[in-house]
Amino acid sequence: GQQVMQIPQYQHVQEGEDFTTYCNSSTTLSNIQWxxxxxxxxxxxxxQLVKSGEVKKQKRLTFQFGEAxxxxxxxxxxxxxxxxxxxxxxxxxxxDSWGKLQFGAxxxxxxxx
Amino acid sequence: DAGVIQSPRHEVTEMGQEVTLRCKPISGHNSLxxxxxxxxxxxxxxxxxxxxxxxxxxxxxxxxxxxxxPNASFSxxxxxxxxxxxxxxxxxxxxxxxxxxxxEQFFGPGTRLTVL
Lengths: 113, 116
What we know:
The complex is a heterodimer.
Chain A: E1 4-7, E2 10-14, E3 19-25, E4 29-37, E5 43-49, E6 55-58, E7 61-65, E8 71-76, E9 85-93, E10 102-103, E11 107-112
Parallel strand pairs in A: 2-11
Antiparallel strand pairs in A: 1-3, 3-8, 4-5, 4-9, 6-7, 7-8, 9-10, 9-11
Chain B: E1 5-7, E2 10-13, E3 19-24, E4 31-38, E5 42-50, E6 53-56, E7 65-71, E8 74-79, E9 88-95, E10 106-107, E11 111-115
Parallel strand pairs in B: 2-11
Antiparallel strand pairs in B: 1-3, 3-8, 4-5, 4-9, 5-6, 7-8, 9-10, 9-11
């Protein structure tokens, strides 16, 4: 079955630095979504990517969907303490039922002031 | 909007007891999802409903788990009998599923379940 892998599992970042988290699927995805979960909180939707090669930006966050629609990345520039949390990618396989998102294990981000 | 409402927020029970988790989706949403989150297994989709009908329950761990959605504004997830390995945070999420549109899911605050 489809598996969604995320790397790295943990990311320690100095405030002001950039970092990237990666998401890889074993199968082609129809779309991919990204969520952020603050410590003790619940996942909050950030963005959805649908098209091959799509790039979307939200302020300091840049999301990409690979050409083969099997991978995605989230790049954060000039990290701030408010970026602390776990970032999840979630993909739907082309043969999955429409609502079936498979979540990656997440990248836990710790920001050092 | 009140967002997705879940109750209880915390539940501590003993092995063998029945546990019922409740969820009220966002008004107007037509899809509801139940997830389980643990350190070991991450965030897992258990079951989801569309227009109150279960669409995919392939993530339900075993017969001890059951979910219902009697109407558009209420769903339950029941574990009977509960076991220590069921300890996790259970999230309910809802969305407005529309063809060709972004179907973002709105998560509730979760229910932290501890089975002793």
